[in-house]
Amino acid sequence: MVENASVGSVDVLTSLESALARTASVVRDSIASISSEARRQLDILSDRCRELQREVDYWQRELDDADDDTDTGRISQKLEETQERLGKARYWLTRAEDAYHNFAKHEPRMMELATERTAAARDLLMKSAEDLRRYLALQPDGESGIGATMLAGLEDGVATVVGALAAEQQMAMAVERLSKVPEIVPGVWECLSLERKRAVMQTVEDAMAGIQGRDTARIEIEDMESGTNGYYDGVSIHVSRERVQTMGSEACVGTTVHEGRHAYQRHAVLHLGYHPDGPQVEEWRDNLLPGHYLDAQHYSYEDYRNQPVESDAFSYRDSIVGRLFNA
């Protein structure tokens, strides 16, 4: 909490505005650079496929014109080797095209975050700095309860913008990585054994933990009371056996992401600065205190769902699952 407003406070605001401007510029340049490099690599892979196709055509003609068994055997081997290399090149070209198309799908959203939202934060900073300058001109000693309140509100506003950027980046990365897990495709998931489903959910959790920069939680499958889907105990994510056995991949991936978000929240509470939105972390901290958490067994579903840690976890889950399965 800021206790005093001074000329130094104005300098902090203007410095922060400049930093946001530089950051936005770097993000925009990085997005453009990644897009350009991805297209270049796609062109290289496409050229390689065309080159190998020409080699295949060449060896096929040689085989058709071969006169004796010795030539036929040697040429057949060359043809098979080249066809195998072509198949691998086409496989990687397809993977690269899928990855690029997924990036391109999210590129406008990332660019929006790097421009419009950052611009809004910069405008807020500059307006607040100007307001504070005018106020200090009327209060030479710099002591200002109003200024302190305004600065505290500004800190919260900037933290919210930065937090939204961080969450959006996490969710975009999550969708990109999880889309590469073949077992979560409906129709495939239903054919998996219970243990294999657990392993796939572990893959999802490992990916999410890596994106969020926290320790991985082990996925445990166990019997639970009806209506309970899962919970995080500080070490492991526990998921209802019935849910895994009867529900589709969308529901089970959603539970994994939801409980993993609780792991993220606890990590943020224990590690100052880990989550960029400080006021939100304080809400989580208070919500997780003994007696403050509202469980669904003893409170209404609305109270349970709308408390800070659950509201955030549900929103985070819905955003990722919605993009992943309804793209």
Name its key features.
327 residues, mainly alpha, three-stranded mixed sheet, 9 helices, 3 strands, 75% helix, 4% strand, flat, disordered N terminus
List the helices and strands and how they pair.
Blueprint: H1 7-65, H2 69-138, H3 145-178, H4 194-212, E1 218-222, E2 230-232, E3 236-240, H5 241-246, H6 249-270, H7 278-287, H8 301-306, H9 308-325
Parallel strand pairs: 1-3
Antiparallel strand pairs: 2-3
Helix pairs in contact: 1-2, 2-3, 3-4, 3-9, 4-6, 6-7, 6-9
- Spans where pLDDT lies below 50 across 5 or more residues: 1-8, 139-165
Strand segment tally: 3
Q: How far do the termini sit from each other?
A: 42 Å
Specify the overall morphology.
Answer: flat
**Domains counted in the coordinates: how many?**
2
Which structural class is indicated by helix and strand composition?
mainly alpha
Largest sheet: 3 strands, mixed
Beta-strand residue fraction: under 5%
